[in-house]
Amino acid sequence: MTADQMPDRLGPYRLLERIGEGGMGVVFLAADAAERKVALKVLRSSVAGEPTARRRLAREVETMRRVRSPYVAEVIGADLAGDMPYIVTRYVPGRTLEQVVTEGGPLPGPDLLRLACGLADALAAVHAAGVVHRDLKPGNVMLLNGLPVVIDFGIAQGPDATRLTMTGMFMGTPGYLAPEVIEGSPSSEASDVHAWGATVAFAATGHPPFGTGAYEAVFYRIVNGRPSLDAVPAPLQPLLAAALARDPARRPLAVQLSARAAMLDPGTLVPGNILGLGEGMAAPATLVEAAYGILAPPGDGLGLAGAPPAGLPGIHGPGVAGLGAAAGLVPPGTRPLATGKPPPADFADVLP
Fold first, then answer.
1. pLDDT score for 55
2. What does the alpha-carbon distance between residue 240 and residue 251 come to, in Å, rounded to a whole number?
3. What's the order of all strands across the beta sheet hosting 95-96?
C-alpha cells in the first residue's frame, strides 16, 4: 500500500500523513470530525482480504478495549467490515524509546526510573485484563513528557484466543523474546516480564542485553540465560536480573516489578561496571553464582559476541535463573535454588 493509493478519508477520519508501518499494515496520523489527532492503523491491501489478518485486527481491538492505563494507548474506534479495515487509537506524539536512546544515549536516572515504573504499570494493566502483549520492545514504547506509553498490540493475545501463527513460527522481536518462547512454549505474562527486563536494560545501557547480530547467536545467548547487565546502574541490576531469569517461574510479576522499582532512588541510577567485569560478562549472574557457590564451568566459550559452539545448540548455562526467588519476588511454592540453600529474604543479601 502506497500513500497515493490511500483515500483522503476513512470513515469519519481524515488521513494526514503516514507515521509508521509493519508487515501487517500502515499507521497514519489522522484527524477526527473535531480535528483531534488520532493514530489510524489500516491493513495492507495485500492482506486485508485474508481472514487471518482481519481476525488479528479484531483481536487487537478487543484486547486494547479491555486495558485501562495511562501508559497504554487506548482504542478510540474501529471499522473491521469495510474494504480497508482499520482501528483508531490515541495518538502519542514524540519519539519511540528506541529512537531516543539510539540518538541520545542511555536514559539518565530519573528518566530511567520513570520508564521502568511506567512500563511495569502498563504490563500490570495488560495482565489484569487477561492479555499477554507478546512484543514489548523499545520500538513499541513512545515517550511522552518523559513517561512511557505502550503502543502496537497487533500480536497481543488473550488466554482464550485462537493461535493465529503457523506451526513452527513465532511472533515477536528476536532480541526481546523470552527463552521459553524461542523453545516453542506459548507466550505468557512471564514472557512479557522478560521483555520488560530487556527493554529497560536497553534504556539503561544503549544496547540490547543479549547483544546483536545473527538471530542464531542472539537466540543462543537468550536460551542460555546470559544477559550482559554490567553497564546497568547497580541498584537496578538485581531487578533486571530477576526479570530476565532463565526460568519463567522465577520471574517477578509486573505488579511486583512496579513496587520494587518505585523504591529505588533515581539519584543512584548511574551507569557503571560495579564489579569491574570484562566485556560480555553478566554481572548479576556472576554475583548470584558467587553468593550461592554456583560456578559456571570454566572455558565454556560463551562470550557476548560469540556464536554457539558447533553441535551444542541446546546447552543451558546456569545464567541468572534463581535471582527472582532469591530477591523474594516470586510467589511461595516455586522450586528451590539448585544448591538447595534457602533464598535470602531481600536483595541486600545478594549484594556486596
1. 77
2. 10
3. 95-96, 141-144, 147-150
Q: pTM for the full model?
A: 0.71
- 62: number of Cβ within 10 Å: 16
For residue 84, give the nearest of 44, 51, 52 by alpha carbon: 44
Mention every residue, 6+ apart, whose C-beta is less than 8 A from residue 185: none
Q: How many residues does the chain have?
A: 352
Note if 135 is an active site residue. Answer: yes
Residue type, 248: P
Closest CA to 236 of 115, 80, 76: 115
Whole-angstrom Cα distance, residue 259 to residue 263? Answer: 7
pLDDT one-digit tens code per residue, 88-120 = 888 999 899 999 999 999 999 999 999 999 999
Overall average pLDDT of the 316-340 stretch: 32
How far apart are the C-alpha atoms of 2 and 198, rounded to whole Å? 34
Q: Is 1 exposed, middle or buried (0-12, 13-18, 19+ CB in 10 A)?
A: middle
Q: What 8-state DSSP symbol labels residue 88?
A: E
Which structural domains are found in the chain, ordered by start?
Answer: 3-90 (3.30.200.20), 95-349 (1.10.510.10)
Q: What is the pLDDT of residues 178-237, one digit of tens each?
A: 999 999 998 899 999 999 999 999 999 999 999 999 989 999 999 999 999 999 999 999
Percent of the chain beyond pLDDT 90?
A: 47
Contact 201, 240 (CB under 8 A): yes
Model confidence at 349: pLDDT above 50: no
Q: Give, in degrees to the nearest 5, the angle at Cα 64 between 73 and 144.
A: 10
- CA angle, 110 then 239 then 341, to 5°: 155
Residue 160, all three cell numbers: 482464550
Q: Please provide the DSSP assignment of 166-183 as one string.
A: PTT---S-GGG--HHHHT
Question: Residues near 53 by Cβ (< 8 Å), separated by ≥ 6?
Answer: 24, 43, 47
| Relative orientation angle of helices 189-205 and 109-128, to the nearest 10 degrees | 170
From the candidates 111, 121, 135, 152, which is the catalytic residue?
135
R_g (Cα) of the chain, nearest Å: 21
